[in-house]
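Teaching assistant here, posting this on the class forum so everyone can see the example we discussed in section. The complex has three components, and the goal was to see what a joint structure prediction looks like when all of them are supplied at once.
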Amino acid sequence: MIVAIAIIRTRDLFAVTMLLSIYGLLSASFFVTLDAVDVAFTEAAVGAGISGLLMLVAISITGRKEQRAKRKPFIALLVVSLTALLLFYGISDMPYFGVPDAPIHNHVAPRYIQDSMAEVGIPNVVTSVLATYRAFDTFGEVVVIFTAGIGVLALLSASNNHSQAKNIVSDQNAMDKRHLVIRVVTKILFPFILLFALYVQFHGDFGPGGGFQAGVVFAAAVILYAMLFGMGEATKVFSQSLVQFVAAIGVLLYASVGVATLLLGGDFFDYNYLANDPIAGQHIGILVIESGVGCTVAAVMMMIFFSFNDLQEQQNANNNKEPE
Amino acid sequence: MIIAATLAIFAAMALALTRAVLGPSLYDRILAVNMFGTKTVLLIALLGFLMGRPEFLDIAIVYALINFISVIGVLRYSGSNAFKHDNKADETIEKSASRSDKWTP
Amino acid sequence: MDTLMSFFSGLCLLVGALICVSGAVGVNRFDDFYTRMHAASVTDTLGAAFILIGLMFISDQFIVIAKLMIILLLGLIVGPTTSHVLAKAALKNGLKPNIPEQSRDDISKK
């Protein structure tokens, strides 16, 4: 609560970003104490790290101080207070946390928890719910992430000029030779971070992890490299067209699993039909869709970061050229 | 003993938070956030042991990496013009909220 | 053997927690950025190392010890690097250290 109030009162947008990432961390700690491991994983990776980073790039383009609001927004305050009161009234009727006869514990959840091992055969119930029982919802999430990436591309690529980008890159590299320590450390750490991303991806069946978290870790490693060595080096391996292609491939993989199950005679996303043995079919299905999710998440994060970074480098070049 | 260590880490996090809220300059706040992050890594490892679920260590590894990448990102973008440290401009959050400021590009 | 392990673990955890708390107090009480950073980075890394070693003594599976060692290595590599980068950026962007008066004459003479 203290952090939230501090966020609202601060004018300095940079401090706001710092406080937002602290807020994300506190949420992750809450999730850990509530014993929700996968959610804490995703919140720590995304909310505390990547969101702060992306907002920082945005701030470096727009400027650091927030403008004072022109008039006091009373009506908005009234609407928000009314909504909060209604929410409190609604919450007061809910059963207490963890009570055994609450409706949420009685209808769907026991069936998932009890039958998951027999029907799906992987220890991590969260992954089995996400990938099998609710595969269609997860498909929607992947499409939303993909759409967000397309939206950012549509808004920000219009002002991109690739021939200018090469000139900018040479300046950037010359400036970075002073940062020797951090460059060496990054070069050492980079393969291990990528290996860890792959570990999280494939270990999602047995422990916390899965496609979303693995994609974020992968993208974080590439973002680190791109920040320190300049966009030129990073785009040699992960060019814009490759990244867009991989993002689309991820969604396509996911959808094609569903279509394949349709063609083989079952319902949409019914993995039992993918192999002779239903349990093996479930495993294959979960493996393929988690790979699709990982590809899309990593590629979209990289797309968003590269777009912001291109814009910022252009602006830096413009600022540096003006005094001449 | 793990419980005592956990409580001590909580206290350290609260202290780091006060420095993040107060710290007059930008770099104090970055330092406080970095410290908060490393304490969180320790906290997650300790809580994992307390609750008997060692899978939390994966989260601790991820968070240590993300903390590092965030601080490097912050410092990378602090080279740009928007972040030049202005010795006159150090102020706490309350002061900056109450003074009327013109937007400096 | 078990009690010896938990005794060592308790000792390491206690020392580590004390170091971390003293570092946090130092960050709050020092009056210059560079001294605060010294407090933060040294105590952070050392305290984390002690706490993780303390946890290693009481874990029973090898995979847990291996993961703790990975966290420890990562912390040892990442901690000093971060403080180096922070100090360099602060100095480059103009934050001046607060040198007290009596030592200022020696520095300006050189």
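For the discussion questions: Chain B touches chain C through 47 residues (CB under 8 Å). Chain B has four helices and no strands. Think about how each of these relates to the inputs above.
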